[in-house]
Amino acid sequence: xxxxxxxxxxxxxxxxxxxxxxNHNKRVAYIAGRIAxxxxxxxxxxxxxxxxxxxxxxxxxxxxxYRELVQFDYKGGIDYHSLMGYRLLDSCSLTKDLANIIKHxxxxxxxxxxxxxxxxxxxxxxxxxxxxxxxLLDYKEDVLGQKNKVLNTLRExxxxxxxxxVVTCLEEIAKQESxxxxxxxxxIEKKIKSYIFYNPLLTLxxxxxxxxxxxxxxxxxxRFTATHSTSVAMVARSLGQLCNLSER
Length: 248
Prior knowledge:
57% helix
């Protein structure tokens, strides 16, 4: 099994929190990948940004949170869902380098100076612009017809909420009609994977790490199930040992 396939499956599950948002996380991944590629970042950084985009809302607990997040004027900073996403990804060796991106993906460009513990990474600013572009679009209507209005809104806040270089880069990409059509493409994962340049096979140790991450994602959503999956795994292991099953 390939690593990115696992991340795409996880991205699909995040989008299921609210069926009305459709492929939001995957669209953000695609937009962010296009921007990162256009800026001229390395293939490694582009891959990291795409995966971070696909998982950027991993800390969202419930549908009501999404209802707030899809408001364009939502001002989160390092909010609860960003912090929870950071903690989840930081706990897994395969996603640790994505954690800081997720933590800062709602920080306004003009408020970076108020973040004392570290610099806000460019990757987070790319995802912020990609995320806000996506929430501005109404996918029940013709997307291409909304192009000018959406770009004007982003341009209005360039240098304030958004990194001006990222907005300028997006404007160049937006000149291609295919970009807007891609956002409505049902199989957008195929488009995303063209911006994935590192996709290794999972080792058994990797699978174990991913399983622990999935456990935390499932269990952290309620204090009543905080250790449920871990407890089930421990009981299952004990039963397996009693049945003289091998460790692998």
